[in-house]
């Protein structure tokens, strides 16, 4: 391949192009080249600005919450602020017992939920047949978007009595919170882990099998290590949801601001205490609540930094291997393209897969992984059967719990469903009648948030995946995005109240709530979009470049349409989080029953309506009906996204 043909495989960077060196026989070509360069650079700058939105959001959250917390910190001092006694009526603002409660609840949820989620993801991706995997995956996607208040409702009605019978207490405490939060984070971690596992090329598995590895050895020593970064990201998202959960925890922990004596003792967390006190607090009391928000933010940012520090060696190794692979592919682009095409059409034979793995320099690494920790005393067949049984059990347990929640909501909610309930207006003290205004409020604020979030998130992901070079700026953008995804919803509510409601003067409105929700959804769509773009095979880009397309033309007309099915998954997760949010909209939208027309109108979303009904216990049938309707809305979003994904996939395949 000559040097003149090389740009067809990998186009030169804009900085390396000089329009003055364009062929002299065409003055128009000079002009087109210069205008194209200006357009491409302007687009790259726009993408960079979108990527920096996450950085700006993180800085603003920290600055505004710290500013609101300064009165109590300057009045009582940091040491007293971290004292053991929380008694605002007596001037005591110590948060240590609440901090301990948050740590206990989050750690317990991760211990229970992470193994189940990863085991379920492995089972559905690597073991289960296609039909079963599709059915269960749909259920998992549905449960990933179920509002947290429904999980709290389930914990209050079902789990709390069971824990009470087992422990002899009232059932309020850390143990019930562990179970509720573990169930909550399982769908999110499972969905993202499945995406990470599916991104591993089939050739890697076939190469492992060709060396005599069992399915368990291939999963444990080849597939899981290769998907490590994606799994870590999934766990970080799950951890962020657990540590920042407010409403579900508020409904089951007992809300006692003391260090618990046992797992069955009532407990309180930073998030639940903020939700309890924010409505009536003022002065130093309210400042102390913002101080809790600062602590929660710092914890989230610190955990994200720790995870990135641990993952850095792996990321560096992946980058090195990617550069080496690209260099080899440039030397023999045709053969690499043929291999990737063969892999895309069908799973290659074991022998061919082994040859591909050897060409990519991975055969020796797979062999070392398979030989590490080998024990001749243990039967490979027995180990394989036992471990596959463990994964099947994890999948069965997770599926059973998810089915139980669906049945719980459906069986109890169906009697309440009617046209009057769906399209009617609340009556009396808003506990009777229909819930139509709450449905409109939920859909209104979610749509507005998506309109704000999606363009920014997609363009930011395009910059990170297609334009950015590794460096401090890119690393900081990724860190800010991960931090933003882990910011507790209660902290985002405090920030939205301080900035959008008070500072910007939007008041309790759809706009204030939508802006706060958009910031929460931004990192989810960013991460899944970036992973989707990176998963698009390189030969597709090369074909477009070979036809003379510019970088933006390749991205907009080739890469993004090809990546849309996976982008849709992230959008569904983001919609689910927006629809299911309670704490954020409680502080930014309000609770008044109102049919919103303009973005500056207030309203009550379905999540807050469900929480008030369940918490007051006035009309449990209406609470069940509201919960069922919420789940049906999420299912509709999910099915619509899957329809778009299939349509896009058929179009990309020319069918």
From TrEMBL:
Note one Pfam family from the annotation: BPD_transp_1
* Compartments reported by the entry: Cell membrane
- The annotated region (Disordered) lies at 1-22
The protein, known as: ABC transmembrane type-1 domain-containing protein
| Keywords, sorted A to Z | Cell membrane, Membrane, Phosphate transport, Transmembrane, Transmembrane helix, Transport
The family note in this entry says: Belongs to the binding-protein-dependent transport system permease family. CysTW subfamily.
Q: What PROSITE patterns does this protein map onto? A: ABC_TM1 (PS50928)
Transmembrane feature ranges: 46-67, 93-124, 136-159, 171-197, 218-243, 288-307, 390-414, 434-464, 476-500, 506-525, 567-589, 622-641
Membrane topology is: Multi-pass membrane protein
Where it mainly occurs, coarsely classed, is membrane
| GO MF annotations, alphabetized | phosphate transmembrane transporter activity
Instruction: Give Gene Ontology CC terms.
Output: plasma membrane
- Give one GO biological process term: phosphate ion transmembrane transport
- Annotated function: Part of the binding-protein-dependent transport system for phosphate; probably responsible for the translocation of the substrate across the membrane.
**Domain (ABC transmembrane type-1) ranges:** 99-307, 439-641
Bias (Basic and acidic residues) ranges: 1-16
């Amino acid at each position: 391949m000559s040097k003149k043909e090389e740009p067809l495989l990998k186009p030169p960077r804009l900085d390396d192009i000089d329009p003055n060196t364009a062929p002299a026989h065409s003055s128009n070509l000079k002009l087109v080249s210069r205008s194209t360069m200006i357009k491409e650079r302007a687009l790259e700058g726009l993408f960079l600005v979108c990527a920096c939105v996450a950085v700006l959001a993180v800085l603003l959250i920290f600055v505004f919450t710290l500013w609101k917390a300064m009165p109590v910190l300057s009045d009582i001092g940091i040491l007293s602020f971290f004292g053991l006694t929380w008694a605002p009526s007596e001037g005591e603002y110590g948060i240590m017992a609440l901090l301990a409660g948050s740590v206990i609840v989050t750690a317990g949820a991760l211990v229970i939920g992470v193994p189940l989620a990863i085991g379920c993801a492995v089972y559905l991706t690597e073991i289960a047949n296609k039909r079963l995997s599709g059915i269960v995956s749909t259920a998992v996607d549905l449960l990933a978007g179920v509002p947290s208040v429904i999980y709290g409702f389930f914990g209050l009605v079902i789990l709390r009595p069971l824990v009470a019978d087992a422990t002899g207490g009232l059932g309020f405490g850390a143990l019930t919170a562990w179970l509720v939060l573990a169930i909550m984070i399982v769908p999110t971690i499972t969905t993202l882990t499945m995406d990470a596992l599916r991104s591993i090329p089939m050739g890697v598995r076939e190469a492992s099998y060709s060396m005599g590895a069992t399915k368990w050895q291939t999963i444990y020593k080849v597939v899981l290590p290769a998907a490590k970064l994606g799994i870590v990201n999934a766990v970080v998202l799950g951890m962020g949801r657990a540590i920042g959960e407010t409403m579900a925890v508020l409904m089951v922990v007992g809300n006692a601001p003391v260090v618990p004596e046992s797992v069955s003792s009532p407990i309180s967390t930073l998030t639940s205490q903020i939700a309890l006190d924010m409505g009536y607090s003022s002065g130093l009391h309210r400042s102390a609540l913002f101080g809790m928000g600062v602590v929660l933010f710092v914890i989230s940012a610190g955990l994200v930094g720790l995870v990135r520090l641990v993952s850095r060696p792996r990321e560096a190794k992946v980058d090195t291997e990617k550069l080496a692979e690209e260099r080899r592919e440039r030397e023999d682009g045709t053969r690499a393209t043929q291999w990737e095409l063969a892999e895309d059409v069908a799973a290659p034979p074991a022998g061919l897969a082994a040859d591909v793995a050897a060409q990519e320099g991975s055969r020796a690494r797979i062999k070392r992984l398979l030989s590490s920790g080998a024990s001749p005393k243990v039967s490979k067949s027995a180990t394989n059967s036992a471990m596959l049984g463990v994964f099947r059990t994890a999948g069965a347990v997770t599926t059973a719990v998810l089915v139980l929640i669906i049945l719980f909501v459906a069986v109890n909610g169906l009697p309440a469903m009617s046209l009057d309930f769906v399209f009617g207006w609340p009556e009396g003290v808003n506990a009777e009648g229909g819930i139509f205004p709450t449905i409109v409020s939920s859909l209104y604020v979610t749509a507005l948030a998506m309109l704000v979030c999606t363009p920014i998130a997609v363009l930011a992901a395009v910059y990170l995946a297609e334009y950015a070079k590794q460096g401090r700026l890119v690393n900081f953008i990724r860190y800010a995005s991960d931090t933003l995804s882990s910011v507790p919803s209660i902290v985002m509510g405090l920030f939205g109240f301080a900035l959008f409601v008070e500072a910007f003067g939007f008041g309790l409105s759809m706009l204030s709530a939508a802006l706060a929700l958009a910031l929460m959804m931004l990192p989810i769509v960013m991460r899944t979009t970036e992973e989707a773009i990176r998963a698009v095979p390189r030969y597709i880009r090369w074909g477009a470049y070979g036809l003379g397309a510019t970088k933006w033309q390749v991205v907009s007309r080739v890469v993004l349409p090809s990546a849309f099915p996976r982008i849709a998954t992230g959008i569904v997760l983001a919609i689910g989080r927006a629809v299911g949010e309670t704490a954020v909209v409680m502080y930014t939208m309000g609770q008044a029953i109102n049919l919103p027309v303009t973005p500056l109108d207030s309203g009550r979303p379905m999540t807050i309506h469900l929480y008030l009904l369940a918490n007051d216990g006035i009309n449990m049938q209406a609470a069940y009906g509201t919960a069922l309707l919420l789940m049906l809305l999420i299912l509709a979003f999910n099915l619509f996204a899957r329809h778009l994904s299939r349509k896009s996939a058929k179009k990309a395949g020319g069918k």
